[in-house]
Amino acid sequence: MSDIVEAVGGVPALFGSNSFNDTTQRERLPKSVYKELKQVQSGKKKLTNEVAEVVANAMKDWALEKGATHYTHWFQPLTGITAEKHDSFISPVGDDKVIMEFSGKELIQGEPDASSFPSGGLRATFEARGYTAWDTASPAFLKSDPSGVTLCIPTAFVGYHGEALDKKTPLLRSMDAINRQAVRVLKALGNTTATRVVTTVGPEQEYFLIDEGYFNQRPDLLLTGRTVVGALPAKGQELEDHYFAAIPDNVQSFMREFNEELWKLGITAKTQHNEVAPHQYELAVIFSASNVATDSNQLVMETMRKVASRHGLAALLHEKPFAGVNGSGKHNNWSMGSDDGQNLLEPGKTPQENSQFLLFCTAVIEAVDKYALLLRTAAGNPGNDHRLGANEAPPAIISIFLGQLEEILTAISEGKTLTTKDGQKLELGATSLPDLPKDLTDRNRTSPFAFTGNKFEFRMVPSGDSIAGPNVVLNTAVAEILSQYADRLEKASDKQAEIKKIVSEQYKAHKRVVFNGNGYSHEWEAEAAKRGLPNIKAWIDCLPEYGKDYSVQLFKKHAVFTEEELHSRVEIYLEKYAKTINIEAGVQVEMVKKSILPSALEWLTGLVASIETLKAAKIDVSGPEAQLKAGGDLLSKSYGALAVLEKELAGAREEGDTHKKAKLYREKVFVAMAGVRSAVDALEGVLPADYYPYPTYEDMLFRF
Ligand code: ADP
Ligand code: MG
């Protein structure tokens, strides 16, 4: 029975029931403490022990009423998944009694053993110890498992001297950075009401659902999240009949429970629909502050896997689970909001608001052009290498879709007057902008970075990873450009004239990144090259970008990363890449060598015997003989490709240098894997159905 049906009050009553959110905080905390906590959350006050003590107690009482026995500091180390270590609330009193306790100190700080998480050399320079620190602005929540109910406290994870060992710490730092600079700009423009600017994110999550039985029979999906062999069936996605089609019943019942679980956590699951590929779906949540959105998205991914399994389904979050079929991404809708109620990327109603809007838009355009490679790096992972710049679209080029805004910015930068439809002459700071249509998204699905009316949508973000990384880069890059604009505006006497100058100069200087056409076309790749836009296809080839001078300067200036932290990340990601490909190649060797080829051999041996029997009976054997020849050739090709892969894999495994090793995996092993795949998939094409030892693409993509 669904919780909604049982719950009195329906969805509104269910919503947030497992979240220590603002409403619960207001209900449960003394007024003065609640007020102070709000100031801590908005960065205006430091957290005191007294406040932490009261909050901890209220949180504990709330959690106990809901059946919790344990608490955990929930954090996002660089492994890509979330980590938690559970402690129970029990505290002994007397000889044989316990009470349930949770102190302010336990809320604020935890001490997991940092040595079991990747640190990319930071440990060597510092110490093994690390600690988790409460992110006061992201609501604590309850998680139910067969082991019981646990109070989860979102935290940042740092080394003993404050070095970032996770995804959250730099994200919070980058939010501070952009807040400082955006507020400076607003102040310089005469705004006296805004004291804080928060970046907002609404992620749209793509995923596949397949039958869990098939999933469990595929070692590649189980161990790597993607298929490393498998031929496309007769039908793929060419009919485009899946997008927005009716959702099958078992998927519907999954979605129902999935939504309910998310709502309980206070996550605003909003839109769900089929995606382009067969068995591909999407879930969008309503936007929130970047740190909250990042935590929610981790929970979305975790909850999805769990709920899918309860419905006999497996949720695939990999960027490319199936070759030849669309992959998955995550659309990162991004904007900036001020605490006086403005969306800084929303065209306003007055001429002043509009010039401010164009200024912030120009800052984003400049930031994206200048730091394109950092953005592309942040959106990379081993899985996204199958999408960005591989045979299938999208390319690895960062460009911006502006829609109608392009015309306006072009006119301003060229000093031309734009006449709007109602005959008004557009003058920056003097007249209002013409209405910009907001329904542009579907007409430019090929743009990696699109302006969609009141926000930008960064679409390169990988489906399976935390959204923290791309947002760290985006926030910091825009913070840097805003700091330059603030420098100019603070000195200028005529602010409107200065805005006009900035917008016109900077748009002109960076308009090469603006592209409204089809981003998936070959013509665009050629055109982008002419414009000098970077197009680096392999993630490991962009990773060193983080360590370059300009990047170190950027992140240091805004106190987001130290140089050591940046280098450590490059190291960790190079290692992650090598390990990922090593596992994928290992799984491929195993599946091919131990199952597929022996099975093909058996078929061919049987075929030889059958041909002899047929010949003795004087039956025409030309058909079977042709099959034997084709199968034999493909078998021999497969064995050959397998030998190459095993040789390359042995070589890569021996290499000790991290960078060289990652390169060997990309340039040798990855390539050899493609060779094996092409031979083995061709063999699958001639193999009788009974002889293919795994669920096929047809099973996985078209059957539940
Ligand atoms: P569209 O269909 O034009 O892309 P939607 O309103 O459906 O617009 O929004 C898509 C996603 O963008 C949703 O997750 C939504 O919450 C998010 N979004 C909307 N406004 C903002 C904003 N100001 N900042 C960040 N994300 C936003
Ligand atoms: Mg979208």
Please give a structural write-up.
The chain is an alpha+beta fold and 704 residues long. The protein folds into three domains: 3-166, Roll (Ubiquitin-like (UB roll)), CATH 3.10.20.70; 175-227 and 239-424 and 434-561, Creatine Kinase, Chain A, domain 2 (2-Layer Sandwich); 578-702, Up-down Bundle (Four Helix Bundle (Hemerythrin (Met), subunit A)). Helix content is 49%, strand content 14%. The strands form four sheets. Strands 10, 11, 12, 13, 14, 15, 16, 19 and 20 form a nine-stranded mixed beta sheet that branches. A hairpin with a 3-residue loop joins strand 4 and strand 5. Helix 21 (563-616) runs parallel beside helix 23 (658-686). It starts with a helix and ends with a helix. Adenosine-5'-diphosphate (ADP) is lined by residues 200-202, 204, 284-287, 333-335, 343, 438, 441, 452-455.
Task: Give the count of helical stretches.
Answer: 24
Low-confidence stretches: none
Radius of gyration: 28 Å
Bound molecules: adenosine-5'-diphosphate, magnesium ion
Percent of sequence in beta strands: 5-15%
Distance between the termini: 22 Å
Oligomer: single chain
CATH topology of the largest domain: Creatine Kinase, Chain A, domain 2
* Class by alpha and beta content: alpha+beta
CATH class placement of the largest domain: Alpha Beta
CATH architecture of the largest domain: 2-Layer Sandwich
Major beta sheet, specifics?
Answer: 9 strands, mixed
Number of domains: 3
User: What's the overall geometry?
Assistant: globular
Please report the total strand number as a whole number.
20
What portion of residues is helical?
40-55%
How would you name the CATH homologous superfamily of the largest domain? Answer: Glutamine synthetase/guanido kinase, catalytic domain
Mean pLDDT: 91
